[in-house]
Structure formats: structure tokens, C-alpha cells
């Protein structure tokens, strides 16, 4: 969380909305007259649903996280409880806002994620249909009686014990996953190929076998252990198993929303993190709910364990010592993995460097990046912070192609400005001057072990303003 708070990640506002919405559902209304109490409950559930639905406005895969709450709304409507309608209304309004924004303002991004978004929308449609069906069946007398009888049979049967056993079995399966799976992804588009090259570079730096298709997804449970420690992870498994068993027994009902969301999201993230596996970058998939959710389960499991030990008849002094030792054991791994980030400072001087670059460009500039690394780093930055148009040369572009583009920029009434990482990149087109020189630190990159600290980072940008008229009337394959 320390690392994430220093970055502009969508997971940060999303987790505030998610945990805030769950807290509103969990919170008990104050003691008031019946009418005012009902209005308070309705408003609380509507605001909870709105907060949860607005996660989709922040990040499109937030739709996955709120699906258990859609089922909860259907359950409440079927019981019947007015709060279910308010929860459903808030969810619908928030999700609609997110999807509308996505289609209207972020369509290229959604198109890029088409392979993930379309299955997610299909799953969401199925969950909504199943929730509506559940509400209808609960409102019909005949099916309501049968469903209640089924719930009673589950509550007094062996299924709660089976769920607890399955929780432990799922943990063991994720732990053993590296023994029977090696996750790979063969690049089939330019972005994937660039990603594979990055993985190969990190592998070389860390002295690992070079294979850009490796995704290391089979280590997803070990990622969690790196950040919260093995003791907390084991307590989380105990907490999840005990809580799931209690819920099926008809107890601790207030925990149902949080339990459903945490288990659902954690399982999906562990199965398919869907991110470049370098750390600490990949930890952004965990901070959205996996880490805080499992720490919550860990506290539940630790408290349950302490109560069990107390029943064995130990003295209060022994119990206090045992509880204190247990929390120290849980905290030490977290402190150790966080230590490199407690005082480290990264990316220093970059904002000032970009502002200086903007001042040098001028308002009438049209920027052409003639070298790939500079284009990757600065095109969006210059477009967003300097407010001028940018472009990059195509692979294989010749100096003649670049000059044709220069001419066309002039013909459009703007000043062409070339950027590159070295003097030689831009010197053939005009007087070269260095406009960015940054020496700072960046987060280190690891693939199969916890992140260890920072690496050095050097950023150089050279600029030239081409002289000569160019040839705006020529064709070509240029920029």
C-alpha cells in the first residue's frame, strides 16, 4: 500500500469505494423511530450500492468485484426486504455510469480489452438473470417454502464442513500449482511482443533463463505470501474456512457481503492475475482487495484461534503472551518486505524535467519522436502535460520519410520539433540540444521472488528544430 500510494493507480480509488460500500452495508443503523430507521436503512443501502457500482467508473474489471452484491440484492428483494431494491438501484446507477463513460470516452481501451470485457459482460448478465430468478422464486409461496427447507437442510447438514474442507483444499491446490503448471503466453500482437521483450530484459538482469513467454501466473499465491507473510496467509485460510462454515450454519450473517466479495475476487485474481508479472508492479492486482481481504480473514482466524486456546484453560498471562507472539509473527514478514519502500524515493526530478521540456517546446510545436524509447516514455506525457500534438516514426522510417513529415507539419502551420534519446537521433535534422537529463531511482523488478528495492534510472532527451523548408508535397510512408 505504501508503494501503491506513490503511483496513479486505479486500484486506490476503487478500494475506497469497495470497502466503503461494504462498510455501509455492514453498519447498523442508529436506534430511531421505525419510520426514520427505515429511511436511514434505505438511504444507506442506496449509497452503498452507488459506491460499489461506481467502481466500474474507475476500472472496468470492477464489474467482477460487485457481482456477489448483485446476488445479495436479489436475495434481499426475495426475502422480501426494501433494502434490496435500494441496493439494486444504487448498483444499477453506478454501473450504468461506468459503462456509459467507457463506451463514450474510453472505447479504444475497451476494444483492446475486448477478449476480457466481453466474457465479463456475459458472466454479469448470467448473474443478474440468476439474481432476478432467485428473487422471484423467493416471492412465490411454493418455491419459497422449498428453498427455506433446502436452506435448513444445508444449515444442519454436512455441507458447511465440506465448504471448510474445500477452502483448505483450494489453498493447497494454489500452493502446489507450480508443480504441475508453467504459465506461458505466446505473443500475437505488437503490445504482447513488447511485453515479452520486457520480461526477457528483466530475466537477463536477474540472471534467470530467458523466455519472454513466461507469465509466472502459477506463483500467484506466493505473491500474496511475499507481501503479507506465510503466518498471516495461514491464519487467513483458517479465518476463511471458519467463517464460510459459520455462514452456512446460519450464523455471522453480517459477514456475508464481505465474505462473498473477498472470496470471489481473490479466487479470480489468483487463477488469472492478468498483469505483467514483474514486482512490485504486479502487486497492484493484489492491493485492490486480495491483500486487505486476506488480512481481514487473518484477523478473524487469529481471533478464533485465541478463543479456542482460551477454552483450554490457560492462564490470562499465558494467553496474552501467546496472542502478542502471534501478532509479532504476522507483522515481521510484512515489515521486512515493506522495509525497502519505507524510506526509498523514486522518480525524483521527473515532473520538473517534463515542465522544463514543455517550456522549451512552445505552444505551436508538433512533436515527432524519432526513437522508440523516447516515444514510449514521452508521447503521452508531452500530449497530456504540454498540450501539443505528438507522433512517432514508424519502424524502418528513413531520414527522407522524417523530412517529408517535417514538411507536412510546416504546411499545417505548426513548428516541427524532433525528440530522441541521443544527439545522433536528431542532429541530422537541425541543431541538437539536450532538454532532459534525469538521474534518479526506479522500482526494481523481480519475477520469482519478492521485490528488493530500487534500480538506477537515467533519462536523456535531445531535441532539434529542423531547418529548411522540407518537402510537404511528397508522399511517403513516414510518420
Overview of the structural elements:
This protein has 479 residues and is an alpha/beta fold. It folds into 3 domains: 1-156, no CATH class; 157-343, no CATH class; 350-464. The protein has 20 helices and 5 strands. It has helices spanning 11-26, 34-53, 55-58, 62-78, 82-105, 107-112, 114-139, 141-156, 159-180, 190-205, 220-228, 230-248, 256-271, 284-287, 290-310, 316-342, 350-361, 372-386, 399-411, 423-426; strands at residues 365-369, 390-392, 415-420, 432-443, 454-464. The chain has a 5-stranded mixed sheet with strand order 2-1-3-5-4. Helix 18 links the parallel strand 1 (365-369) and strand 2. Helix 1 runs antiparallel to helix 2 (34-53) and helix 4 runs antiparallel to helix 5 (82-105). The longest helix has 27 residues, at 316-342. The model is unreliable at 471-479 (pLDDT under 50).
Low-confidence runs:
471-479
Mean pLDDT: 89
SSE string? HHHHHHHHHHHHHHHHHEHEHEHEE
Count of distinct structural domains: 3
Strand order of the largest sheet: 2-1-3-5-4
Tell me the major beta sheet: 5 strands, mixed
Shape: globular
**Total count of helical runs of at least 4 residues:** 20
Backbone CA Rg: 28 Å
Helix-strand category: alpha/beta
Strand content: 5-15%
Distance between the termini: 41 Å
| Helicity, as a percent range | 55-70%
Number of DSSP-assigned strands: 5
Amino acid at each position: 500500500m505504501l508503494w501503491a500510494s506513490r503511483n496513479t493507480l486505479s486500484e486506490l480509488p476503487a478500494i475506497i469505494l469497495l470497502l466503503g460500500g461494504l462498510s455501509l452495508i455492514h453498519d447498523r443503523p442508529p436506534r430511531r423511530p421505525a419510520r426514520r430507521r427505515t429511511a436511514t436503512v434505505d438511504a444507506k443501502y442506496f449509497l452503498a450500492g452507488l459506491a460499489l457500482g461506481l467502481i466500474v467508473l474507475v476500472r472496468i474489471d470492477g464489474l467482477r468485484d460487485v457481482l456477489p452484491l448483485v446476488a445479495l440484492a436479489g436475495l434481499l428483494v426475495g426475502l422480501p426486504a426494501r433494502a434490496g431494491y435500494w441496493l439494486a438501484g444504487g448498483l444499477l446507477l453506478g454501473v450504468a455510469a461506468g459503462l456509459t463513460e467507457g463506451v463514450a470516452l474510453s472505447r479504444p481501451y475497451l476494444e483492446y480489452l475486448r477478449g476480457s470485457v466481453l466474457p465479463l459482460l456475459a458472466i454479469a448478465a448470467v448473474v443478474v438473470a440468476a439474481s432476478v430468478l432467485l428473487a422471484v422464486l423467493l416471492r412465490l409461496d411454493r418455491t419459497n417454502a422449498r428453498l427455506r427447507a433446502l436452506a435448513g437442510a444445508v444449515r444442519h447438514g454436512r455441507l458447511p464442513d465440506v465448504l471448510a474442507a474445500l477452502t483448505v483444499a483450494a489453498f493447497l491446490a494454489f500452493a502446489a500449482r507450480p508443480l504441475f503448471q508453467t504459465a506461458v503466453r505466446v505473443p500475437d500482437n505488437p503490445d504482447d511482443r513488447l511485453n515479452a521483450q520486457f520480461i526477457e530484459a528483466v530475466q537477463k538482469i536477474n540472471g534467470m533463463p530467458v523466455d519472454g513467454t513466461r507469465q509466472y501466473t502459477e506463483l500467484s499465491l506466493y505473491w500474496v505470501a511475499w507481501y503479507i507473510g506465510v503466518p498471516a496467509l495461514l491464519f487467513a485460510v483458517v479465518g476463511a474456512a471458519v467463517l464460510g462454515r459459520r455462514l452456512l450454519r446460519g450464523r455471522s450473517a453480517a459477514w456475508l457481503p464481505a465474505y462473498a466479495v473477498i472470496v470471489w475476487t481473490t479466487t479470480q485474481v489468483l487463477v488469472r492475475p492478468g498483469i505483467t508479472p514483474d514486482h512490485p508492479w504486479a502487486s497492484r492486482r493484489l492491493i485492490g482487495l486480495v491483500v486487505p481481504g486476506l488480512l481481514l480473514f487473518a484477523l478473524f482466524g487469529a481471533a478464533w484461534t485465541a478463543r479456542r486456546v482460551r477454552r483450554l484453560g490457560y492462564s490470562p498471562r499465558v494467553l496474552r503472551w501467546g496472542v502478542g507472539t502471534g501478532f509479532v509473527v504476522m507483522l515481521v514478514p510484512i515489515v521486512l518486505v515493506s522495509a525497502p519502500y519505507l524510506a526509498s524515493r523514486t522518480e525524483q526530478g521527473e515532473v520538473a524535467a517534463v515542465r522544463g521540456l514543455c517550456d522549451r517546446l512552445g505552444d505551436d510545436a508538433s512533436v515527432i519522436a524519432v526513437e522508440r524509447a523516447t516515444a514510449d516514455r514521452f508521447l503521452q506525457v508531452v500530449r497530456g502535460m504540454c498540450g501539443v500534438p505528438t507522433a512517432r516514426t514508424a519502424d524502418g522510417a528513413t531520414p527522407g520519410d522524417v523530412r517529408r513529415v517535417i514538411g507536412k507539419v510546416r504546411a499545417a502551420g505548426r513548428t516541427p520539433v524532433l525528440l530522441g534519446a541521443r544527439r545522433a537521433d536528431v542532429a541530422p535534422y537541425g541543431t541538437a540540444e539536450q532538454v532532459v537529463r534525469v538521474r534518479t531511482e526506479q522500482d526494481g523488478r523481480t519475477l520469482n521472488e519478492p521485490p528488493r528495492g530500487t534500480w538506477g534510472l537515467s533519462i536523456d532527451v535531445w531535441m532539434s528544430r529542423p531547418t529548411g523548408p522540407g518537402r510537404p508535397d511528397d508522399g511517403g510512408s513516414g510518420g
